[in-house]
Design a protein that fits this description.
Blueprint lengths: L3 E6 L4 H13 L2 E7 L6 H12 L6 E2 L10 E7 L7 H10 L6 E7 L5 H11 L5 E6 H6 L6 H4 L2
Parallel strand pairs: 1-2, 1-4, 4-5, 5-6
Antiparallel strand pairs: 2-3
The structure holds flavin mononucleotide.
């Protein structure tokens, strides 16, 4: 039996929406990464971008699991300022030795996705086996559901 694991960070719920639908489809384990630094609100968004651009780490919480036991790991994150959020950067930095093979799912509003893919690949020392990108408005409208099956192949 294939054991899948979804790992995600979400500030405002879009990435969580996709992660939860994918979990329903795969019937698999899931890890939500929480950033202990307050990130909500319009003004805090500026700090989010600065932290992302500066590649800052942060304090995070998550349910620890043995990542090595999973055949497939789906890493899901929003894009911040063409970078990755500190919570994802911190998680990957802490757990990189146990992530050997992964699929990447990015949520974003439409900017270039190559930089965050490269960032994550450099931290993990390997490129994702697949990358899927989902535009924010397709999450809001629900049309991302049409592509969900393709992500599980
Ligand atoms: C601080 C911040 C920076 C962002 N920077 C980008 C960006 O550079 N490019 C982009 O396409 N979307 C950007 N976005 C939009 C988010 O990536 C997008 O809305 C994402 O789906 C939010 O996911 P979440 O609701 O799970 O937090 C940014 C959002 C925030 C809050």
């Amino acid at each position: 039996m294939t054991e899948d694991l979804i790992i995600f960070y979400s500030r405002t719920g879009s990435t969580r929406t996709v992660a939860e639908k994918l979990k329903e489809l795969l019937d698999c384990d899931i890890i939500e990464i929480t950033d202990k630094k307050p990130r909500r609100g319009f003004l805090k968004a500026i700090g989010c971008s600065i932290d992302a651009i500066k590649k800052n780490l942060t304090d995070i919480e998550y349910n620890k699991k043995d990542l090595k036991k999973y055949n497939r790991i789906f890493i899901m994150t929003p894009i911040w300022a063409s970078n990755i959020p500190p919570a994802i950067r911190t998680f990957l930095t802490l757990e990189k030795s146990d992530i050997l093979n992964y699929k990447l799912i990015l949520t974003y509003k439409g900017s270039d996705i190559n930089k965050p893919i490269k960032e994550i690949s450099e931290i993990l020392d390997t490129y994702p086996s697949n990358t899927f990108d989902i535009i924010h408005k397709d999450i809001k409208s629900g049309s991302f559901m049409l592509n969900l099956n393709g992500m599980t192949k």
